[in-house]
Amino acid sequence: MAQPAKNTICLWYNGDAESAARFYAATFPDSHVGAVHRAPGDYPAGKQGEVLTVEITVLGMACLGLNGGPGRPHSEAFSFQVATVDQAETDRYWNAIVGSGGQASACGWCKDKWGVSWQITPIALTQAYTSPDRAAAQRAFNAMMGMQKIDIATIEAAVRG
Q1: Is 41 exposed, middle or buried (0-12, 13-18, 19+ CB in 10 A)?
Q2: Where are the domains of the chain?
Q3: Pairing between strand 109-111 and 117-122?
Q4: Inter-residue contact 23 to 112 (CB < 8 Å)
Q5: Does domain 8-70 have CATH number 3.10.180.10?
Q6: What does each C-alpha distance from 137 to 41, 62, 63, 128, 153 come to in angstroms?
Q7: How far is it, in rounded angstroms, from Cα 123 to Cα 67?
Q8: Average pLDDT over the chain, rounded to whole?
Q9: pLDDT of 11-28, one tens digit each?
């Protein structure tokens, strides 16, 4: 038996942890579904034999999907922040999440259909708003504030002034 990761992010789902895990594994590189564990007995959110937990690696990070039942919705207090290298990668992840029953939000944030928050953040954006040229950083930040999915060309134009 493999030694479990010392620190694992546990994500609470209402019965669909396995479908979420399979979506993440199909969408993001360095992601895969590990063991699927079934409940050895009945529990408040399910019955014996139903999926209880799913081991998942998301972008190299150990996670556990727990079918804990209703009443514990995800919030923006936790999000995956995905650094993207170009517009094509930004579009691919954003469109996969939003286009599969998710929801667009502001400034590069979106939620998947299970309510988990994602920040699809181009490296160019992070470099722009952390620039030592504070005027350029402010212009990039202001441009970002009007966006849902980040448009790198618009950010770069804002930096140039």
Answers
A1: exposed
A2: 8-70, 74-161
A3: antiparallel
A4: yes
A5: yes
A6: 55, 34, 34, 5, 15
A7: 34
A8: 96
A9: 999 999 999 999 999 999
Q: How far apart are CA 103 and CA 68, in angstroms?
A: 23
Of all residues in the chain, what percent are helix, strand and coil, respectively (each to 5)? Answer: 30, 30, 40
**Topology of domain 74-161, CATH:** 2,3-Dihydroxybiphenyl 1,2-Dioxygenase; domain 1 (3.10.180)
* The token pair that represents 3 in the structure block: 């030694």
Residue 122 φ/ψ, nearest 5 degrees:
-60, 140
Q: Which two tokens stand for residue 50?
A: 């139903």
Alpha helices (H) along 49-105 = 87-98
Instruction: Provide the b/e sequence for 83-95 (b: ≥16 CB within 10 Å).
Output: ebeeeebbbebbe
* Segment 46-78, tens digit of pLDDT: 999 999 999 999 999 999 999 999 989 999 999
The structure's pTM equals 0.93
In terms of residues, how long is the chain?
A: 161
70-115 pLDDT, tens digit per residue, is 989 999 999 999 999 999 999 999 999 999 999 999 999 999 999 9
Fold match, 8-70 / 74-161: yes
